[in-house]
Structures are given as structure tokens and as C-alpha cells.
Amino acid sequence: MSSEFAPSKHRQPSQRRVISDGSSSRTFATAPQSILHQSACGAASDVTGVAFGGRAWETFAHGADVGVRGRGANIAEAFANAAVALTSAITDPAAVRQEREVSLACQAPDAELLLYDFLNAVVTAMAVEDLIFGRYDVRIEGDRLTAYAFGEPVDAPRHAPAVEVKGATLTELKVACEDGRWIAQCVVDV
Amino acid sequence: MDAGTLTKVGDWCWRIEPAGEMHVPAIIYADEALIWEMDDKVFEQITNVARLPGIVGAAYAMPDAHWGYGFPIGGVAAFDADREGVVSVGGVGFDISCGVRLLTTNLTRADIERRQRELADALFERIPAGLGSTGTVVLAGADMDAMLEGGAAWAVAQGWGEALDLERIEEGGRMAGARSDLVSEAAKRRQRKETGTLGSGNHYLEVQFVDRVFDEARAAAYGLERRQAVVSIHCGSRGLGHQIGTDFLRAMALEAPRTGFRPPDRELASTPLRSELGEAYLGAMKAGINCALANRQILTDLTRQVFAELFAGSELKVLFDVSHNTCKEERHRIDGTEHTVFVHRKGATRAFGPAHPELPPELRPHGQPVLVGGSMGVGSYVLAGMESSEAASLSSACHGAGRAMSRHAALQVYSGRQVQDDLAARGILVKSPSTRAIAEEAPGAYKDLHRIAEVSEHAGLAARVAHLAPLVCIKG
């Protein structure tokens, strides 16, 4: 397994540098060189991703499961928003309090597997820590990703979780530049 | 699916002849209506499966087939290790050994209805279900390894159930050859507090009653009679099974360029059965099977406790326990000769016909019980493996209704509260921590289970024995 996460700390997000809001995550990143060299999207790092009528993330239909999609001005922002979309399959991300943070790290030979690893690291962290996350900060350097996920313990009556996301898959897996913005997506198994 | 691209073979079977890189034909069991309902991905995916190295016989799609991960859900394929056959994570599925267990009771529908609300509340309180729910069983270290290598037999030895239960579980309740040492630490950490939990999605625990018997002799042999109350449990290997799938899918996808076989779909990544990675996956997958068997065994015990408190003298016996996400080494007659093959069943139930030596002696004359789950409005079916099952589909049958609409679409159409109220008006109590989950699992989001069961019988896969109608449904 190429991903890992560190147990959460009771640290307020405001105590560290966080550039994001509840509906879209700003990130600071450089994308894997193999992708950047082939793309016109570049690595813009100071743009807030806003798409889909004000949201930088969405879910899409897939048979028995759910597709998650994030967009961003850079690849890391798209990854962060894909993770918000993953949360949205479970509950409203905006209703998740950001009381705890968990650090995540993974490494993969290409951007798509990096997304697969990142979302699976999120799923594992949620399961092991009994947390749900509402926001993510992602940093990508070369083939390595580090991230912070912000959330709180699952409160079933308040979050009313619709499903448990059990893993990201390779289905509909795509990390690409479309119309000048990065898109990061895959189907998650629920 | 466009039926015009298929060759119709009788009223219940369609065939795609080998073309291009296909090694074998693809065979789809469905009537014309079901074929039209299937999305094109089923056609594409079952054709891709027919291209995998070492496949023998045919690639089969069951009547409930729909879009899956590499394999269609409802896909069956066998691979011969002597012909460089492969094992595929997508052919097993992420929820390793997801399956259905059916418990018979000595109670009637009327008994349940007298205390239906209390029973629903008690089960909802005692059966851990949904995201964030944890069981009373916390496992780590040697205890975790013992569970992964012992399955339901381990659970019974710990006091969850009776030795008699094991006789009615595939593999006698313990999958031999499990390798807990090949299961990642991440998988074990995910499972730490999840043993004995139901999960979410399409998993459920239902109290049902036998509302229709199709085959009196088989029903009697299975211990079923009209108006009898029964309990169906549908769940799998929880986070551990998914993590095994995630870990090995990644490893197989990375190894693919080195094997010389380029899978037509990345999700169809596979590796030779006779390879270090292939053998490691099989060992870890068998541990995942044991996890699911232990899970359903503990849920059985919890269910018995609830019934004992509400219904003095109640007896809940395991009728059978089937897994519908597996790869198992089996002997089959294929193209006229006996083969030892690794049969992948992704969303398909093993359906051994009468006289099969692996069946318990008392069930052997009647064929294996095939437990088919449906939606919370329709209930389930009990089918039986037929003599024709082996030749038709390597002794395999359907596993459920299959979705007619995505969760996304269901949310646009249904209100969870309304679905709950409508079902209550029909005498079905649904308990779930999430009304959105109820909307996503609305009965209308699923295909017609009755049709699928009927087609399974006509196609010679498994014969109808009884239909079970729901009274109480616990959803995650």
C-alpha cells in the first residue's frame, strides 16, 4: 500500500495555514511533471476552483455506485474537490464541522493512480478514525501527495450518512485538463 | 442493450460469438425485456472478460447483470491455471464474499405482526448498521488473524452461534487456505471495530415471511412453509474486504505492463494464477471470505438474542449461507471434459445441482439453496440449483434484482420519508439512520426481481422454491 495517514490531532484548522472555504478548496501545488509537461493547464496555484454553478465538485451517476468529480485551477485543487465530492455522497460537506485534522500521504507513478491512492487514503482514514471530513488541503510534488483532511467524528443523527464509501475504483478514473481547468474523477464503491 | 448485436439462442439465452481477441463466446441469460434493460456496459464488459488469458468455456452474464468493475455484476468466468489462466480482482468484486444468509424460525407472520414495531426497534438498536456504527467485537493482532483464518467456525468457537450452523454454510463455514499474513495492516485497521456490523448501501437485515411456495417438495426439504417467518441477512467483508481489493487491484494494474497482457479495461487488471501476486491475492481473498462468514455468523447471533427477548422459545436455524463475490477452485465438466478451474462469480451465486458432493447430505437430493436478495419492497427468493446449472453456467445463478436506476437518479425521483411511509402502509417497517439512504434504495430503483427469478428458472440456472415478502427491514 502506498498511502498512509497520521492519526488526527485536536488542532484547530485556524492554527495552520489553510486557504479554503467550505464549498471549494484552494490549494498550493505543483502537479506531477509527467502531466504538466503534456498539458496546457499549467500549475496555476492561486485560483479558487468554482464550477458547476458555484461548486467545484459534483457526483455523477454510475449503476449501483457513485461517481465523484472535482475541478480546479491546478491538479491538487481538483483532487481536493474530488474528495469533497466523495464526502457529498455520504452527507452535506458544508454540515461537517472542522474540529479535527488528519494528515495523509501517498505516492504513485501517475496522476490517475495518485488520485486512486488519495481517495482510498481518505476512505481508510474515515474508517479507522471514525471521522467524516468536510474539507481537504492537498499538495502534490512530483509523484508525492500530502494532504490534510478536516472533519469531525461521525454523528449519525446529524449527518444522516446515506452510504458508507468503501473505496475508490479505477472505473471512470480520469485526471486531465479540460477547457483550461483540471478535472479529477472516479467512481467510488458504496 | 441492443439485442440486434446478439445471437438469440432460445427464449432465455443470448450469445456473442468469439471475435477479435475473444478466446471464448459470451453467453447472456435474459429474456428480451431484460436484454433491452441491460446497459451497453454489460455487453462491453462480458466481451472483455472473454479476452482474458486462460478463460475456458464461456464468459457468462446472469439475468440480473449490470455495469460493474471490469467484470459486469452478474458475471461468471472460469480460468485454467494450466492454460496460463488469471485471477482478477474485478472478477471477485471489492466486497469479497458479500452474500446472503437465510434463517428459518418457528414463528409465523402473525406472530411477528403482533410485535412488529418492537421487533423493528430492537433489531435497529442491536444490529450495528450504517457509517460510523461499530460492533461490540474489537479485534487486533492474533485475534484478528484467527478470525481471518477461521471464518464462521472461529465465531462459533467464540460463542457466537452453534456448531450446527456451520453445516449450512458454504465451505463448512471456514475457507481453507486463507492467509491473514497477506492482508495489509490498513485492511486490518479498518476491520478492527467492524466485525459483526451490517454496513450500508444495499446491505440489509430483513424479517420476512414465506408468501409463496413454488416447489412444495424442495420447500419442505429446506424447512420452509407458507406464512413462516424467516430472517435474511445480506452483507459482506466490510472494510477489510474492500481494502484487500483496493490493495491488489493497484498491484495488478501496476504489474500489467510486465505480464505482456494489456487488459482492455484497467479495472480488469489480472495476474496469472500461478504467480507470486496471483497466489498472494488468492490467500488474502480467502481471508476476506472468512471475514464475511464470521460477520454473518455474529449478526446471526445478535438476531437470535433479539428474537429470544421478544419471542420466548423462538428457534432460528441457518437454512443456508451463500457468497456471491468470490473466486473458488472447483471441478467442472467443460466442453465434454473435467477441468479444475478457478470460477469467478461477481454478483453471482453458486448453484450446485442435486447430488453435488459438497452439499449437506439432507440437501443433496434437492440442490443447493440459492438465496437471491431483492429490494425492501419486494423481498427475496429462494431458488435451488438444477441439474442443468453446471452446463448452463458452471453452476451459477443470479444474486439479486440489479438496479434499474442509479442512486443519483433515485434521489431525483424518491423521497426517503415518502418511501418509508408507503412501505409502512403496506405493512413493511423500514429502519435506517438515513432517509436519503432509503430514497437511494427505493424499491422502484431496482429491476423486477420476480422476472429475474423466473428467467433464472427457465434458463436452467436455478429453480424457484419460494418467495419471501418483507415485514421489517434494517438498512445501513
**How big is the Rg of chain B?**
21 Å
Proportion of strand residues of chain B: 25-35%
CATH homologous superfamily heading of chain A: Archease domain
The beta-strand count of chain B equals 19
Interface with most residues? A-B, 43 and 50 residues
CATH first level of chain B: which class? Alpha Beta
CATH architecture annotation name of chain B = Alpha-Beta Complex
CATH top-level class of chain A: Alpha Beta
CATH fold descriptor of chain B = tRNA-splicing ligase RtcB
Q: Supply the helix-strand structural class of chain B.
A: alpha+beta
Q: Portion of residues in helices of chain A?
A: 10-25%
Count the helices of chain A. How many? 4
Q: Taking all residues together, what is the mean pLDDT of chain B?
A: 95
Q: What's the story with the biggest beta sheet of chain B?
A: 8 strands, mixed
**Helix residue percentage of chain B:** 25-40%
End-to-end Cα distance of chain B, whole Å, is 32 Å
Q: Report, as a whole number of angstroms, the end-to-end distance of chain A.
A: 21 Å
Rounded to the nearest angstrom, the radius of gyration of chain A is 15 Å
Write a concise keyword list for the protein shown above:
heterodimer; A: about 190 residues; alpha+beta; Archease, Possible Chaperone, Chain: A, domain 1; 5-stranded antiparallel sheet; 4-stranded antiparallel sheet; globular; B: about 475 residues; 8-stranded mixed sheet; 15 helices; about 35% helix
